[in-house]
Each structure stands twice: as structure tokens, then as C-alpha cells.
Design goal:
Layout: E1 7-8, H1 18-26, H2 46-63, E2 69-75, H3 79-89, E3 94-99, H4 102-111, E4 116-122, E5 145-149, E6 151-152, E7 157-158, E8 169-173, E9 190-194, E10 204-210, H5 228-233, H6 243-258, H7 261-282, E11 287-288, E12 299-303, H8 307-319, E13 322-323, E14 334-337, H9 344-360
Bound molecules: pyridoxal-5'-phosphate (PLP).
Amino acid sequence: MKYGRTYNFSAGPAMMPEPVLEEIAAEMMNYRGSGMCVMEMSHRSKVFQQIRDEAEADLRKLMGIPDNYKVLFIQGGGTVQFAMVAMNLMKNGLGCYVETGAWSKKAIAEAKKYGEVKIVASSADKNFSYIPDCSNLDIPENADYVYICENETINGTTYFQLPDTKGKVLVSDQSSMFLSRPCDVSKYGLIWGGVQKNVGPAGMAIVIIREDLIRDDLPKFVPTYMSYKTHADNDSLYNTPNCWAIYCCGKVFKYLLDNGGLEAMHQRNVEKAGILYDFLDQSKLFTGAVRKEDRSLMNVPFVTPSKEQDADVVAASKEAGFDNLKGHKSVGGLRASIYNAMPKEGVEALVEFLKKYEAEHA
Ligand SMILES: *Cc1c(COP(=O)(O)O)cnc(C)c1O
């Protein structure tokens, strides 16, 4: 790795593509003759407007976002979306949620403040190690939407098939899988993702919302900033946006377009995750924490037979130059987050390290 950088397996903020970081560094002191850094620029300036517009256009191209969807750049990261979804979409006051782990639980807890929540499926019985069957959910007629966390960052599960929502609007938290594979946006009413997992710097979420779901009859208690309409009506420039994150994400969109788009990303991600899962499947020391059919291509939790040994592997991995492999406290063990920007060489090096550790501790 160049610049003495490390293979960083953090769940987020996480690695960004090196060519993107280099471009940002080159533009740091004087962005394309503007005489200033993007951090110093008015969000109302022509030069920033172009940065914003190109970012949106490139994202639309990358995902094939239909014209009847708005793209919004909203501050507050992922957590703010737990509240915004419920505040904006609970017209009848009922949201259906699939409970698959830490992040869907947080979404459920937040939604309960604004209306009624029905948990239509859950994998709590097995510590969220699988995706429950969502082919015949019991969805009430008056439900406003069905909500999923499409990739559970902490638990390491992902959907390979979307739920049958019985015609209701599908809302998806794609934070830790955003742009990791092709996505048919027309199947969703709303997709959102915090960008610091698989795209750019922390502090912003991207929301892709079907226009007919944007309401102007929201309850009075909803703060101006928390209304999707505020952002949609103002091209995400109602107030000062997270200019820096928009700029960096825009660079990543261009990078992905230049490197084969989401289909190519998906192939790379399948290959990368395969290297790690193939190793775990034959290992006598390490065990994957998730049912095979539901394993995430982005976040890979795994364990040794004991907590002590888990801690020992984490310490040894740090010594060997890998970073952030400690699992989340609710799952334990280890977790390797291998987002788009993690090179294949990083995963290969990790597997080599784990093999060696296993041989030495047999
Ligand atoms: C990280 C994450 C969030 C929360 O993002 P913040 O920006 O930290 O609020 C929500 N959902 C998922 C799936 C995540 O991985």
C-alpha cells in the first residue's frame, strides 16, 4: 500500500478509493482555478452548484434512477433518517418493520415515537444471524410502508431477495451496501444510505424518494429541516449542506462510472467476499456468524471458539498491520468490513494472516 496506508477493515467511516483521495489532495489548496478549497466555498456559488449538480447527475446515471425520483443530500447521517422516514411517511400512522438486527431495531425504536410500528418478521430468535422469510408477510391494509435494513452492518446479513410488500411502499436502509451492487430503484418508494460506509466522509445521508411520497401536509411538529419537501424543493440547498461530503461523494460516483459501474463493483465484491467466506468455510478455528444464504458481501462477522482467543486474534491482526477487525460488542468475535474501496489484495492478505494464525494455534 502507498503512503504507509493500512488495510482498514472498519465498518465506517471506512476506506475510500485511493485515486479519489489523491484527486482531492491535488485540489485541496485551489479547486480548479477557483482560488479556494471546496471547504471554503460558498454553497451558493456557481462553482459549487456545478459540483452538486454533477454529483446528482452521476449518481442518477450510476444507479439508473428514474425521473420520478428525487435525490436528496441531507445532513445528520443515517440516524436522522430513522426519524425522517417515520415523520414523513406515516400518513396513516402505521409502519411495518422487518427486524433483522441492531440498525433495524434503532429504526423501530425511533419510529415508535411518531406512530404505530408493526414488526412483520424478525430474526431475533437466533441473534439476527439470518434474514427471515418475507414472502408472505402479514401487512395491514392501512400500513404506510414496509421498512427493511437491506444490509445489517453489525450482524452481517443481507437480502438477496426483496420482501413481498403486498403493494405497499418499500423503504430501505442501504447504508452499508449503497452502490455495492446494481439496484432497481423502481422497486422502492424510498432508499436511503449514510455515506460513510461505502461512499464518502461521515455526516450525510443520500435519500432517493419517489416524488408522490413527498408531502406538504406534514404534522406541525415536524421541523422544517426534517421534511423531505424542504430538501426536494430546494435541490438540497435549503440551508448550508455538507458541501465537503457532496464533493467527495461526487468524486466517488465518477470513479465508479469510470471503473465499470455497479455491475463491475458487484463482481469484484462477490469475488472479494468469496475469498474470505471460502476460507471461513474450511477453517477449523474460525466460524462465520451468519446463515450461508444471507451472508453480506460487505460485512463479514466471524468468531473463534472463545472470547479470549477472539481478543488474541484482534491483537495479533493489529500487530500484523490490519486495522479495525474487532467485532461489534453485540455479536463479539471479529468483523471484516470489505466495502467497494477495500482492494482484493487486502482480503487476500487478511486470509493469509488468518491461515498462519490458525496453523500456529492448532
Ligand atoms: C452506520 C449505519 C447507520 C447509522 O449511521 P450514522 O451516520 O452513524 O447515524 C444506519 N444504518 C446502517 C445500516 C448503518 O450501517
